Amino acid sequence: MHLSFIGMSGVGKSHWAKQLAQAGWLHLDCDCVIAERLGELIDVADDEDPVHAVGRWMGMPWTPGYAEREEKYLELERDVTEEAIDAATAQPEGTNVVLDTTGSVIYTGDAILHRLRTETRIVYFDAPPHVREKMVELYLREPKPVLWQGGYQPEPDESQDAALARCYAALLADRSESYRMLAQSTLDYAVLRGESLDTQRLLALLQ
User: Fold this and answer.
1) Is this structure's pTM higher than 0.85?
2) Which spans in the chain are helix H?
């Protein structure tokens, strides 16, 4: 079985990908590979989460040079995602593989998304509105790297903080619809947080 986990950052993709890895699956972590390849451009402190270091490097949508860094990140993401698909399909028959994609995988282009759909089974980790509200609050406290793709559009006389909160909420809502349209299976957020869920039950839900 070849699975691709898609969804917002913090919804649980990496947690369950790691659980499957402990059960013997091959885990292909796109975020980790991207962070490693950006290592030459980013200074990561000893006690710093690499994701936060990437966020510092990319900056906010109004930061000078953001558009160029956003495009560089997306170009790298395309390469890493395609390499992950290649690695999955190159495995010996019977090898179970899980691709742990980034939250911005939906921007990688039609060709890559077509490969994901035809060469893996795409599983969307749902994030209902009340969860997305908490994601906005967390992002405002601890910004992470975000590909805005033109989604940050402040209104006249709107404060920077207000524009960021409004536009990020809209971005998450748009992504939610894109994920849902792309996915072949959807996992309910409440079920994913259930105490009885383990890897066997997770896989049973996908049958």
Assistant:
1) yes
2) 13-22, 30-37, 50-58, 66-89, 110-119, 129-141, 160-182, 189-192, 199-205
